Amino acid sequence: MDFCAVLLVVTLCKVSMSATPKLHILEPVQTTTQLPTYLAQMGKGLTSIPKGGPTVRSVNYGYNNIFNLSANVFSYNGFAVLDRIQLSHNQITIIHQKAFRHLNYLKVVDLSGNNLTILDVNTFKTNVNLEKLDLTTNKIRFRNRPFLKSASLTTLILSDNRIEQIFELNFTKLPKLRNLVLNSNVMFVIADHSFQHLTNLVYLSLANSGVYRLSDEMFKNGSYPKIIDVTDTPLASKFNPPLRKVKNEGVVDLINIDKYSYY
């Protein structure tokens, strides 16, 4: 090969190298966008539960116009890991027995300020981690049957409803209940044995109700709550000054007051 041929080969190699594009290693795209874990649409005029997502853990759809909750409404709308649902101050009148199905992580439900008159006893049966249910300011009345069945519920709030009477069966399916709030109900009759199944009950609030007596027969073998609130009740007004929150040994005395002669 002569000198000219060698020079031609070298020149062609240089041209080829310069024409070859440089390879760039693809870096992962940096983004600050993350899938949401909390959704809030309060006061937006909603009439139904909107679409969610598989990462959403908490929703607040309070102060809307939602009328009913149909079967599997949350799971059908893409919610899989919800642990908190806030639906206060809607127009909810009807809740399907299966509305909260497939929500295995659900811990807190707020249904206060709606138009509920009754719930199916099995509404929350499958929500095995449910801890707190707020039903304040609805139109609920008790019937002579279990109110709800939940093996995990620890706090039940039923203030400002239309409860006139507590029947013996109402709380028989809530074995872990620790806090029961029944403020601002008419509630002038509490049946014997009403609280006998609530052996873990710590706090019982009957404030601003028609309660005029408590008795040992309502509880099981001296398993009394540690605190009972009887503020602004006929029972409280029997004392001077009127009773408010009664604690510990005071609870024992209050419940057994019928055995004494000093009132």
From TrEMBL:
<dbReference type="InterPro" id="IPR032675">
    <property type="entry name" value="LRR_dom_sf"/>
</dbReference>
<keyword id="KW-0677">Repeat</keyword>
<keyword id="KW-0433">Leucine-rich repeat</keyword>
<dbReference type="Pfam" id="PF13855">
    <property type="entry name" value="LRR_8"/>
</dbReference>
<keyword id="KW-0732">Signal</keyword>
<dbReference type="InterPro" id="IPR001611">
    <property type="entry name" value="Leu-rich_rpt"/>
</dbReference>
<feature type="signal peptide">
    <location>
        <begin position="1"/>
        <end position="18"/>
    </location>
</feature>
<protein>
    <submittedName>
        <fullName>Leucine-rich repeats and immunoglobulin-like domains protein 1</fullName>
    </submittedName>
</protein>
<dbReference type="InterPro" id="IPR003591">
    <property type="entry name" value="Leu-rich_rpt_typical-subtyp"/>
</dbReference>
